[in-house]
Amino acid sequence: MKYAIGIDVGTSGTKTVLFDSRGEVIASATAEYPLYQPKNGYAEQEPADWWAASASTVKAVLKKSGVNPSDIAGIGLSGQMHGLVMLDESNAVIRRSIIWCDQRTAKECEEITEKVGAKRLIEITANPALTGFTASKILWVRNNEPENYARCKHILLPKDYVRFMLTGEYATEVSDASGMQLLDIPRRCWSDEILEKLDIDSSLLAKVYESPEITGYITKEAAALTGLSEGTPVVGGAGDNAAAAVGTGAVSDGKAFTTIGSSGVVFAHTSGISIDPQGRVHTFCCAVPGCWHVMGVTQGAGLSLKWFRDNFCGAEKETARLMGVDEYELMDKQAKTVPIGSNRLIYLPYLMGERTPHLDPDARGMFFGLSAVHTKKEMLRAVMEGVAFSLKDCVEICRAMGISVSDMTACGGGGASPLWRQMLADLYGCPVKTSSSKEGPALGVAILAFVGAGVYESVPAACEAIIKSAQVQQPIEENTPVYDKYYKLYTELYPAVKEKYAVLAGLS
Predict the structure, then answer these.
(1) Which end of the chain has less Cβ packing within 10 Å, N or C?
(2) How far apart are CA 435 and CA 248, in angstroms?
(3) How far is CA 287 from CA 241, 270, 279, 312, 331, in A?
(4) Residues with catalytic annotation?
(5) Amino acid 318: pLDDT
(6) What is the DSSP letter of 201?
(7) Residue 72 and residue 2: Cα distance in Å, rounded?
């Protein structure tokens, strides 16, 4: 039996999972680390913490499993995207990594747009300049910490720093590199035009691989620290969402997944390049060689339900505690007693601004149609429906771009709700299922490692053999036209109040 290890370098911690070639979990381990916020809107982490967590969890899963390290076919890496890691000429980390959720780079985004041009930027990188992406972070360091920028010899992403510590190689892969805003997305290589216009030396950047390609091998030093065998191959891996796509089997046309975590994501696979000229969704290279994915994001998905629970569902929380059940199960049962449309109540889930389709940081949440007949349970269902409407916005943009969405997997905490999955099935007009594995990104990059090591011939073939579906919600035909009426009104509400959001944001 051959095995593979998936290392997922997240924001709160690193999770390492050892799988056999059927995708079964043999052992797993997690190590947490801090997030630093030196100023409002700043977010940083220590790359040394990622490496320590990765080394310790690999060692732990090998010890727990008793698997012979020589039977490990390969290692796959996943992780948080967009983070900036800067190394000097001796490979020492120059400063803490500025990570994905840092918001300090608004001026640098303006600088990028001015130097490249808004239209041209989207044509090459498939996205407008965003504070989360890596390019603006590079410019911020150059503009604000010139001494650190002058020392910089290598720029890596978070998971790729762990790769460097494992293999000694400066390497990345197309899915994670797509989030740097320096990659030519259609051509799957660094953009000479972007680098020239931003005056960034191409020698700073790592070599770009496809996700299942072998990028290096475990060094003697890394083997001593982790317990792995020297010479074990390490494949490109993938950014967190691209890895999750492999881990849920969304690796061919028509397949997609919806994640309802704090934010919500709709991720659709496409074998042809398709870019939204308005920049409402992200088009990135995906983990399947020669293919792409389109991703829409709603900021306040599961966050909306958590906000409602924490502020209005104290009785449900206490009852759930006494019954020994999940409070969200009780909330689901309450919402299910309310008809579609929540008795003419609509919720806009813009608690944290919005990305898809509006890209408006000033947007805020709203209950529309609230009256004296409404109770907590109508408001609860309206929250769930509003999030589902927002996710449908993402699906509709994908379909308008010519991308098929006919096979949907639901992930994340919200994906565990049968009621929410049924809402999505009715709104999307296609089956919505869950995956039998809950490992997502770690499984995805382990599958990539199996492909790189030759255990499977391709990513789709590996997913066909490994990924299994669990519950499936079929669309209920009579529900769809009812939802469509409310969804149409929902789409008309944001344009009606858009200007007032900006006014509200300006009030002291």
Answers:
(1) C
(2) 6
(3) 10, 11, 21, 41, 37
(4) 240
(5) 92
(6) -
(7) 6
